[in-house]
Every structure is written in C-alpha cells, then in structure tokens.
Amino acid sequence: MKKFVSILLTAILVIGAFTGCGAKSGDELLTKTPFPEFSEQDMSGNTITSDIFSEYDATIVNFWNNGCGTCIAEMPELEELYQDFQEQNINLIGVGTDSGEGEEQHQLAASILKEKGVTYQNISPSPENEFYQEFVSQISSYPTTYIVDSEGNIIGAPIVGNVKKQLDTIQSRIENASK
Question: How far apart are CA 43 and CA 29, in angstroms?
C-alpha cells in the first residue's frame, strides 16, 4: 500500500508539473519551433521557399506520400479546407514526401493530385536537399500535419492522422498562430 501511495503522489507531482498551476487551457503550453528553411520545387516546377509563410497568418503543411491511403483519401477534405481558409488568409501546402525520388514517383503523385482535384500547392522535395534529409526523412507516420505561423514557427506538436477528424486542434493552433 505504501508503494502504491508513493507512486500515486509521484504521478500527481509529474502531472502537476506539466499542467501548471492555474492554467486555463492547453493553449498556453503550445510550443513554437522554427520550421526548417527550404527552397523546393512544387509539382509544376515552380520554386517555393519558406518565405511563403510570411504571406499568410497561418499555413497548414500536410506531409503525405504516394502509398498512404489515408493521405490520399483526405485530399478532397483538405481541398475543401483550403478553399474555406483562403478568405481568412490561411494557406495550405502539401508535401509529397516521395514525389521527388524519381520521375515515376513524381508522375504518380501528379496523377493522384489531379484525380483528387487538389488545387493547393504541393512541394516535391528533393532527397538531395537538406530539408528532405534533416526534416522530411524524419517523419515516421502519414499523414502528418503542422501549423506554421507567419514568422515560420511550428505551433505545437505534429498532428498525425486525418486532419478533418482533428479540426478542433487545427482551429486552436491556427488561432494561436494568428496571435
């Protein structure tokens, strides 16, 4: 019993340390981490750099790959969000993580985007570039989505899984990005 009480008290102290005294919501605990700088080609060969973040109050960056059924299935939902958010100065960018690995992968990604009616920009990162090697290659689950503010900071932790099922989290992070 003594061991149980000790474990319980330790757990309460640990939880208290993470929640903070008097915290009203989890929003105050959101971190801001710089999104890595990049200069990559989109699916049409146009250069997109990390400077694009400064043009919007917030940017949703969705990482997907050609073999991810959930990623492909959510593209029409992301397109709908993209259209809805444009009026609010919020952008959405896709990153086809394997689309830069060769012509066959690039063509497959382009075909998927066309079939799903995607109009938002999609970056095709080169495996030769630092952005791919030090950031993209570290993503272990798809889809993975980040919210980035106008200063190029990631707001909170990555959002893994279908975006539409996590709209409350997306909206909260967008609000925090716009502050």
Answer: 36
How would DSSP label each residue in 135-146?
TGGG--SSSEEE
Q: What is the pLDDT of residue 95?
A: 98
In contact, 26 and 173? CB cutoff 8 Å: no
39: its two tokens: 């200069």
Q: What percent of the chain has pLDDT over 90?
A: 80
pLDDT, position 169 = 93
Quote the number of domains for the chain.
Answer: 1
Peptide bond into 125 cis (omega under 30): no
What residues pair up with 42 in beta bridges, in sequence order?
123
Residue 35, in any domain of the structure: yes
CATH of the domain at 117: 3.40.30.10
